[in-house]
Structure to design on (298 residues):
C-alpha cells in the first residue's frame, strides 16, 4: 500500500541528497513524495525539481513562507487520498526498514491510528550520539495535552487518522506532529510506539527543534523555556480542540471542557482539573513541573 511522504523544505540544500538517497533505499518501495518549499533562497527547489530518485509531486500553493505547521497541513490535505502518510524532515537519514516497520504495524488496524518511534541522534557528519528518549507514559487523552511524544519525523498515519486531521484546523502556534497526536488520542484512536530508532536525526545549529538526550537536559530545557511559552501553546491547543467537538470522542469532549473551564477560572478549579484520570506527563518529575505550570501559568 502506498505511503505518501510529506516533505516541507526550507534552505535544505546541504543535507537534502542524503535524505533523498535514504528514501530510494526503503525496503517498502511503494511510496510517493509530496514536497512543498517554504521560501528557500538556496538551491533546494532546483535540487528537488531535478530529482530522479522516485515519484514526486510538488505542492506549489500557497507560495512563500507559511510556517512549518501550515506547510505540513497543506501537504497532508494534498495527499489525503493515500492509505498512509509519513512526515519527513529534510536533514534526516531514514533507516531502510523505516516504512516497512511502520506499515506492518498500522495495516491491520481499523480506526484512527498513529505510529511513532525513537530516533538515532547523530551529529552533522552522521556520527552517532545516542538514542532519543524512551516513549514512556500514557499515549492517550488528556495526557496528550501535556506533552507530545510523537516526533514528526518518525510519525506515520493510517487513512482514518489522515481523514480526521485533514478535516481539522490546528492553531497557528502549535506543531503539526503534536496536533496529529492530540487529534488521534482525543478521537479515541490508537498510538503505536516503536522503541527502535528508525532515523538518523541530525543535531546541528539549524534544527528547528532539537532532541535533548538525557532526562536532566530535557528538564533543564523545559525550565529555561518557562511556563509562559508552554501555557501559550497549551491554551491554543485547548481552544482549537474545543472549537471542533465533532472530531472528538465523548470522554475527550468532557475532559476538555473541564480543562478549558479551569483555565478560565482560579487555582481551585485548576487543582480540581488535575484530578482528571491520565492528566500527566511521562515521568513523575515532568508531571510535577506540568502541574505547577498549569496551576500558576498565565
Amino acid at each position: 500500500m502506498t505511503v505518501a511522504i510529506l516533505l516541507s523544505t526550507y534552505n535544505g540544500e546541504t543535507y537534502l541528497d542524503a535524505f533523498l538517497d535514504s528514501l530510494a533505499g526503503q525496503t517498502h518501495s511503494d511510496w510517493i513524495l509530496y514536497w512543498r518549499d517554504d521560501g528557500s533562497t538556496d538551491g533546494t527547489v532546483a535540487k528537488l525539481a531535478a530529482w530522479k530518485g522516485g515519484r514526486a509531486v510538488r505542492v506549489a500553493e500557497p507560495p512563500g513562507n507559511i510556517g512549518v505547521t501550515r506547510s505540513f497541513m497543506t501537504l497532508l490535505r494534498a495527499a489525503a487520498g493515500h492509505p498512509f502518510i509519513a512526515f519527513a524532515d529534510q536533514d534526516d537519514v531514514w533507516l531502510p526498514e523505516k516504512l516497512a516497520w511502520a506499515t506492518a504495524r498500522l495495516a491491520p488496524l481499523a480506526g484512527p491510528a498513529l505510529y511513532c518511534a525513537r530516533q538515532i541522534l547523530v551529529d552533522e557528519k552522521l556520527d552517532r550520539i545516542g538514542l532519543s528518549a524512551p516513549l514512556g507514559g500514557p499515549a492517550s487523552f488528556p495526557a496528550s495535552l501535556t506533552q507530545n511524544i510523537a516526533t514528526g519525523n518518525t510519525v506515520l498515519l493510517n487513512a482514518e487518522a489522515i481523514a480526521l486531521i485533514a478535516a481539522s484546523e490546528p492553531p497557528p502556534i502549535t506543531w503539526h506532529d503534536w496536533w496529529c497526536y492530540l487529534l488521534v488520542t482525543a478521537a479515541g484512536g490508537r498510538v503505536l510506539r516503536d522503541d527502535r530508532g528508525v532515523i538518523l536525526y541530525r543535531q546541528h545549529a539549524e534544527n528547528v527543534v532539537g532532541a535533548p538526550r538525557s532526562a536532566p537536559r530535557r528538564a533543564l530545557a523545559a525550565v529555561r523555556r518557562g511556563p509562559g511559552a508552554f501555557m501559550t501553546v497549551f491554551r491554543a491547543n485547548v481552544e482549537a480542540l474545543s472549537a471542533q467537538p465533532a472530531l472528538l470522542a465523548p470522554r475527550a469532549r468532557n475532559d476538555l471542557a473541564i480543562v478549558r473551564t479551569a483555565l478560565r477560572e482560579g487555582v481551585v478549579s485548576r487543582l480540581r482539573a488535575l484530578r482528571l484520570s491520565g492528566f500527566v506527563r511521562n515521568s513523575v518529575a515532568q508531571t510535577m513541573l506540568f502541574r505547577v505550570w498549569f496551576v500558576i501559568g498565565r
